[in-house]
Amino acid sequence: MQYDPIKRSLGNVFNKTPFLRKFFYRLLDLLLLRTWHIKKEIRIWAKGKGDNLNILDAGSGFGQYAFFISSKNKNWKITGVDVKDEQIEDCNNFFGQIGRANVSFSVADLVKYQNPGAFDMIISVDVMEHILEDVEVFKNFHTSLKPGGMLLISTPSDQGGSDVHDHDHDHGESFIDEHVRDGYNIDEIQEKLKKSGFSKTEAYYDYGTPGKISWKLSMKYPILMVNASKLFFILLPFYYLVTFPFSLILNWLDVNLKHKTGTGLIVKAWK
After folding, report:
1. Cα–Cα 20 to 30 A to 199, which of 27, 73, 188, 218?
2. pTM of the predicted model as reported, rounded to 2 decimal places
3. Predicted local distance difference test score (pLDDT) of residue 41
4. Which fold has domain 4-209+260-270?
């Protein structure tokens, strides 16, 4: 399954006006469980923080996390980088339209990108599963953080990440075509971060049992339907009308319960 064609289709629909773009962000905030976990961690990190902080959104995509962080403090400077030119141009246009002057986006390859000692926090959400040279990226993150700065990562785990154990392909093949790995072992990624220079790491599973069910209801099945036929775009509002309340409850449970295993990982590392 490929996400990029779906992303382009969604972008064409929701980029027509700033109102639609903000509405799209709100939908992502509600539907995407990883957003619930990431926003929770950002809120925890932000407590007691002052002004004039610099944050890197490494793999900024649609810009929804840069939007959330920049909403918390107008004196924080947020830099978004991504390899996709069209998404960078799109984000710069949108944030310019809404007058969000503390946010800027530029094209960059994380395997090569460094800005030594520049950032108080780096977030990287659903990015590392797309990059083969992960250790090089971790080293660049470490270099780009200020002393005491924190890296926050969301990525699939090896406990069924990329939905690898729940499809009709051969065993071991990622359900999501763009992924170069089917998920990280919880110890493996922390060891790689420590070898890259980080002094302290923490990691926990998300997408436990409630999250896995929610992901299938809110993301997997709708995307499969849309991939099968664009006509399903018409049916999606009715589909979500039925499934949305269940997804909200399941997302809340996933964020507020601890999981012995899960198909996703939230990883934090400090310089």
Report:
1. 73
2. 0.88
3. 97
4. Rossmann fold (3.40.50)
